[in-house]
Amino acid sequence: MRGVDLAQLKALQQQYAGKVVQYDMHKTFSPRFIAGGDVGFEAQGTVARAAMVIMTWPELELVEYQVARVPVTLTYIPGYLSFRECPALEAVWQMLTIKPDLLFIDGQGIAHPRGLGVASHFGLFADIPTIGVAKSRLCGEYAELGSEPGSAVALQYQGQTIGSVLRSKLRCNPLFISVGHKISAASALAWTQQCLRGYRLPEPTRWADAVASNRPSFQRWLARQ
DNA sequence: GCGACAG
DNA sequence: ATCTTGTCGC
Questions:
Q1: A118-126 and A81-95 helices cross at what angle (nearest 10)?
Q2: What phi and psi, each to the nearest 5 degrees, are found at residue A221?
Q3: Cα end-to-end span (Å), chain A
Q4: Which residues are listed for Mg(2+) binding in this entry (predicted)?
């Protein structure tokens, strides 16, 4: 699962990062469908399992989900996650009957050493607005965060603000929100907050994770269908 | 050289 | 990410 030249992937990241759009293409857009994407692994890490869920806005009701399994081509290397997960995400994306207007991806967007986390990389591929929602930090520094849900501080890296650190839920570790593609930093944070429903993760990401891991919450949803 | 390091 | 039971705190 190696055989690849990291210097070459690094050059690709620098090239792709220059194509990322960090502002709202449609200032007043009101999405009809919002999606969530997540990737898990099985068979001792040799197979990537990507899940994507489609939810209505503003109800945030699950209306479609798909799962794709693809052979892994690269081991996990911090900073190169997108090359490991994008093939599987691209596979589920093709399976979707409904294409979303906005997509949340589990992982960093531009909050990456070279500005190309998986949310940005996949956003360029799908060519739609994407937001990166990571459960931990890859790079950057940030000031102490308030304990109240909703409090947020800037994530800075080399003198630049690359994202926000958001306390989405009381007594829970914060989320690292960043622009994926075709959206502004302010919108990325605002849409994340608008998709919160009492849990640490915004609904799209939470359900994508539930589907990818076949969690009880998803099983109950299936039974009610 | 040493420590950090999305999922 | 994944392997996995109980357990501490609200």
A1: 40
A2: -65, -40
A3: 39
A4: 38, 106
Q: Which residues contact A5 (CB under 8 A, 6 or more apart)?
A: none
- Which nucleotides on strand C sit less than 7 A from a protein beta carbon? 1-3, 10
Q: Alpha-carbon distance A167 to A149, whole Å?
A: 5
b/e string for A17-36 if b means 16 or more Cβ within 10 A? beebbbeeeeeeeebebbbb
Residue in A155, A144, A143 with CA at minimum distance from that of residue A112 = A155
The answer to whether some atom of strand B lies closer than 7 Å to the beta carbon of A81 is yes
Give the whole-angstrom CA distance, residue A225 versus residue A108. Answer: 33
Residue A136: nearest nucleotide (C-alpha to C1'): B6
| Token pair 């531009």: residue | A110
pLDDT digits (tens, 9 = 90+) for A139-189: 999 999 999 999 999 999 999 999 999 999 999 999 999 999 999 999 999
Rounded to 5°, angle at Cα A208 from A148 and A165: 30
* Location of structure tokens 């489609």: A54
Asked if A137 CB < 7 A from strand B, the reply is yes
Binding site members of A for Mg(2+) = 38, 106
- Chain B nucleotides with an atom closer than 7 Å to a protein C-beta: 5-7
- CA–C1' gap, A108 and C8, in angstroms: 31
What confidence score (pLDDT) does residue A224 get? 85
The residues facing A130 across adjacent strands are A103, A181
In terms of pTM, does the model score above 0.90?
yes
